[in-house]
């Protein structure tokens, strides 16, 4: 009979879209539904969530909806952090509130798992990483895109040497976020106010940092152009407001080894691609296009020989010349997969590399991206250490 090891997790920010859907429902509750996390040695990790926030009635509704007890709701963060039965503090709040809360949790001796960006600036992000190191608490940052099926297939190709020498990476991310006047916006209004920590650079450049770093190499320079294409939006109450944050960013990143990456990020673009994010990787031996779930390849030996002729219609179906990479296995929800690894790290000290220092690299790239756009020049990205 397995021994159950209960791990109590304070989840702060589960009333938000990502905190509720991806972290509570599709991660923690999904792990409970599967019977916990089996360590393979007779021990099963059983995650026990405590929902933390300011709106008690909303938290109690969520707890009741998912069969959680009365002790699974808390509105006093200080009291939660003073509770010795709480093992992990997780933060999915708005960015402006995150740094102070994580610092308190570290001081209380809790292990830390958090959404990104970890702070509003690099100094704050490095401060948290140093506090966690000095306190000896385990810590992790959500880097969910590494666990998407499409990028897992892409990593398989990279690790297998499919590309030969990689030359370039081109990424397209985004979709049209409704302004909020005649259709409700799909994202919260604070995302479009710089004073509230909003902006697509702050939101997406941390993602691009870890994707590029993990798959292709460290980012060494950044050059970005940002725009606020939609200057007025309407908030959740239907009131117009000035959009002060960037809603589109066009970035060029030079990576270690000479690889050039270009990534466009926009909430003001209509989708004409197979998935909401796609990366094309070109190498001397082959190319691939990877999205959230799918990945297609074209090897050197199967590369066609198109000829430019603007006077004639295209005679080739270019998309048909690519082959689909098979799944070769089942892929779980990316957030859930990383949660499981972090729980294994906390309980069994299994290997883990996505820590607060990794999170600080994302904050650094966002900060430099905004500086590059403001100054109109390419900026070096220094290597971080504690």
- This entry's quaternary arrangement is single chain
* Distance between the ends: 43 Å
The shape is globular
In terms of DSSP E residues, the strand content is 25-35%
Percent range of helical residues: 25-40%
Across the major sheet, the strand order is 17-16-15-14-8-13-12-9-18
Order of helices and strands: EHEEHEHEHEHEHEHEEEEEEEEEHHE
Helical run tally: 9
| DSSP strand count | 18
User: Mean pLDDT, rounded to whole units?
Assistant: 96
Which class do the helix and strand fractions yield? alpha/beta
Note down, in words, how this protein is organized.
The structure is a single chain. With 386 residues, the chain is an alpha/beta fold. Helices cover 31% and strands 25% of the residues. The strands form three sheets. The chain has a nine-stranded mixed beta sheet. Helix 4 packs parallel to helix 5, helix 5 packs antiparallel against helix 9 and helix 7 packs across helix 9. The longest helix has 20 residues. 42% of the residues are buried. The mean pLDDT is 96.
Q: Helices, strands, pairings?
A:
Blueprint: E1 3-12, H1 17-33, E2 37-38, E3 43-52, H2 56-65, E4 73-74, H3 77-81, E5 86-91, H4 95-107, E6 111-114, H5 122-135, E7 139-141, H6 149-159, E8 166-174, H7 200-215, E9 219-227, E10 232-234, E11 240-242, E12 248-255, E13 260-266, E14 277-283, E15 286-290, E16 295-299, E17 323-324, H8 334-348, H9 356-375, E18 379-380
Parallel strand pairs: 1-3, 1-5, 3-4, 5-6, 6-7, 8-13
Antiparallel strand pairs: 2-3, 8-14, 9-12, 9-18, 10-11, 12-13, 14-15, 15-16, 16-17
Helix pairs in contact: 1-8, 4-5, 5-9, 7-9
């Amino acid at each position: 009979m397995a021994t159950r090891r209960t791990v109590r997790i304070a989840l702060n920010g589960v009333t938000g879209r990502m905190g509720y859907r991806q972290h509570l429902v599709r991660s923690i509750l999904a792990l409970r539904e599967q019977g916990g996390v089996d360590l393979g040695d007779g021990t099963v990790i059983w995650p026990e969530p405590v929902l933390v926030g300011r709106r008690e009635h909303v938290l109690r509704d969520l707890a009741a909806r998912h069969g959680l007890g009365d002790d699974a709701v808390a509105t006093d963060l200080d009291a939660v952090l003073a509770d010795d039965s709480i093992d992990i503090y997780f933060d999915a709040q708005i960015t402006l509130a995150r740094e102070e809360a994580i610092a308190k949790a570290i001081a209380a001796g809790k292990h830390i798992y958090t959404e990104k960006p970890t702070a509003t600036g690099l100094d704050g992000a490095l401060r948290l990483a140093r506090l966690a190191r000095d306190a000896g608490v385990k810590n992790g940052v959500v880097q969910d895109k590494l666990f998407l099926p499409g990028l897992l297939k892409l990593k398989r190709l990279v690790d297998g040497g499919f590309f030969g020498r990689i030359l370039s990476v081109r990424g397209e991310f985004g979709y049209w976020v409704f302004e909020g006047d005649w259709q409700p916006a799909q994202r919260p209004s604070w995302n479009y106010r710089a004073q509230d920590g909003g902006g697509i650079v702050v939101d997406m450049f941390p993602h691009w940092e870890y994707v590029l770093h993990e798959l292709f190499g460290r980012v060494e320079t950044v050059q970005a152009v940002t725009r606020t294409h939609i200057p007025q939006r309407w908030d959740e109450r239907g009131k117009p407001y000035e959009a002060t944050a960037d809603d589109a960013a066009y970035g060029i990143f030079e990576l270690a080894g000479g690889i050039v990456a270009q990534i466009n990020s926009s909430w003001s673009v209509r989708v004409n691609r197979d998935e909401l994010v796609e990366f094309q990787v070109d190498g001397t031996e082959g190319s691939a296009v990877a999205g959230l779930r799918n990945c297609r390849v074209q090897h050197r030996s199967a590369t066609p020989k198109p000829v430019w002729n603007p006077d004639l219609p295209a005679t080739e179906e270019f998309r048909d010349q690519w082959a689909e990479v098979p799944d070769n296995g089942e892929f779980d929800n990316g957030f859930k997969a990383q949660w499981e690894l972090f729980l294994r790290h906390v309980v069994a000290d299994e290997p883990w590399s996505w820590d607060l220092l990794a999170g600080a690299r994302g904050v650094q790239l966002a900060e430099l991206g905004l500086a590059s756009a403001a100054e109109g020049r390419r900026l070096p990205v220094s290597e971080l250490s504690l």
